[in-house]
């Protein structure tokens, strides 16, 4: 049996009772280590679960999944995922492979950033398509996510922006030379994401466009949602470019049309209440 177990968002204790029972009866336990991270390390999880964990990076899951599944064909195997098991498409692929091989599986769900963002006071049913904002390079500066944010905003919907995670990434030189040398992990912050959005806005204006999103659009920055030191900040996109929320993981929300109750909640987290009110009142319904 293959168990896909969600770990929640905070620390070792966020696993469900059902998930913990499954982990403790499995012979092999893998910890997915590339789509998200917890606020505690592998050792803390091992101590709480009472099990040795095998780190599963992107290369292993996407290229050596069959080996993992062969084990699940003869014994119970757990695949642990931060948040909910279906927060990343890779894990759907694992299920499809298991079904194709005739291996039974069971999914044990948990909280993920997709629903925990409600902690800021924005109503979940008013969110549109979720987007990912990736780190730009000197030669690669995609803007496709901006178009999706604009589409959501035109429809009055909020946009959850998942910020880039670079774990076990190779430099172009090492990749070309086939050297297994990896760069230090990098996690995009709210202010980095806001800076890229502001750059796109300026670029669109230079092209004669009038972007739906401006420097004064109300946004929400979130850090370490679900952890004891969770932080939330609301304000204009310009203000988000200078806000400091500390350690990862970060997420950013670009608001759409807000209900007065949502606006009242966001005021609790405003970085500057006066400028926040002046701008937020423009997009309430």
Unreliable spans are none
End-to-end distance:
50 Å
Average pLDDT for all residues: 90
Placed side by side, the strands forming the largest sheet appear as 3-2-4-1-5
Biggest β-sheet strands, sense, barrel: 5 strands, parallel
Write down the secondary-structure element order: EHEHEHHEHEHEHEEHEHEEHEHH
The strand count comes to 12
Report strand %: 15-25%
| Strand-pairing-aware structural class | alpha/beta
Question: Can you characterise this structure?
Answer:
- There is one protein chain.
- The chain is α/β, with parallel strands linked by helices.
- The protein has twelve helices and twelve strands.
- The chain has helices at 17-25, 42-49, 58-63, 65-72, 89-100, 113-116, 144-154, 172-176, 190-206, 237-240, 260-267, 273-280; strands at residues 2-6, 28-32, 54-56, 77-81, 105-108, 131-133, 159-163, 165-166, 186-187, 218-223, 231-236, 250-254.
- The strands form three sheets. A five-stranded parallel beta sheet has the order 3-2-4-1-5, with helices on both faces.
- The mean pLDDT is 90.
Chart the SSEs and their pairings.
Blueprint lengths: L1 E5 L10 H9 L2 E5 L9 H8 L4 E3 L1 H6 L1 H8 L4 E5 L7 H12 L4 E4 L4 H4 L14 E3 L10 H11 L4 E5 L1 E2 L5 H5 L9 E2 L2 H17 L11 E6 L7 E6 H4 L9 E5 L5 H8 L5 H8 L5
Parallel strand pairs: 1-4, 1-5, 2-3, 2-4, 6-7
Antiparallel strand pairs: 7-12, 8-9, 10-11, 10-12
């Amino acid at each position: 049996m293959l168990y896909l177990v969600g770990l929640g968002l905070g620390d070792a204790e966020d696993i469900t009772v059902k998930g913990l029972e499954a982990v403790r009866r499995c012979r092999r336990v893998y910890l997915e280590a590339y789509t998200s991270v917890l606020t505690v390390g592998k050792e803390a999880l091992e101590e709480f679960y009472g099990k040795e964990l095998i780190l599963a990076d992107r290369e292993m899951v996407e290229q050596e999944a069959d080996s993992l599944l062969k084990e699940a064909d003869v014994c119970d195997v757990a695949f642990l995922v931060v948040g909910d098991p279906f927060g990343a498409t890779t894990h759907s692929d694992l299920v499809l492979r298991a079904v194709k091989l005739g291996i039974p599986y069971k999914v044990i769900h948990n909280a993920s950033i997709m629903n925990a963002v409600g902690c800021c006071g924005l109503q979940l049913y008013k969110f549109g398509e979720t987007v990912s904002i990736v780190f730009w390079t000197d030669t690669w500066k995609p803007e496709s996510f901006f178009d999706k944010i604009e589409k959501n905003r035109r429809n009055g919907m909020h946009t959850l922006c998942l910020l880039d995670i670079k774990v076990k990434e190779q430099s172009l030189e090492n990749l070309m030379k086939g050297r297994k040398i990896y760069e230090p992990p990098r996690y995009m912050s709210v202010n980095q994401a806001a800076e890229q959005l502001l750059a796109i806005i300026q670029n669109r204006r230079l092209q004669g466009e009038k972007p739906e999103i401006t420097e004064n659009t109300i946004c929400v920055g979130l850090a370490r949602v679900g952890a004891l030191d969770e932080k939330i900040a609301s304000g204009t996109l310009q203000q988000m470019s200078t806000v400091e929320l500390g350690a990862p993981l970060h997420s950013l929300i670009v608001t759409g049309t807000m209900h007065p109750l949502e606006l009242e909640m966001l005021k609790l987290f405003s970085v500057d209440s006066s400028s926040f009110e002046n701008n937020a009142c423009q997009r309430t319904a």
